[in-house]
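Cross-check.
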Amino acid sequence: MFTSVPEEINVLSQKVITLAYKVHTALGPGLLESAYKECLSYEIARSGVFVLKEKALPLIYDDIRMEAGYRVDLMIENKLIVEIKSVELLTDVHSAQVLTYLKLSGCRVGLLFNFNVVHLKSGIRRLII
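Predicted model, tokenized:
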């Protein structure tokens, strides 16, 4: 059965998207993902929102917790996953990566940003499970 996304997550998502626009406007396309991650993380924290960088996610298999090396770029308020790319084109593999992170983290909403675009609007995907 489909359940809607809580309004709190929608507001949080919009805040992060607004801050991503700010970062993209200041830096433009063509930098490394790490530059955008650091700047977006800084802006999110500066806005008073709790953010974790490179949050490790364990894989649970057959009731065994395995440290498989999964790391989320940004986890916001323990409710929202943000994955940052700086690539020529977002592909289905990038979306699948975010969906995997959502499943492993227990979060329901993820934002996938590609900062290597002229207009950030064309580099945003919002994924929901």
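The mean pLDDT is 95. The radius of gyration is 14 Å. Passed to J.P. for a second look.
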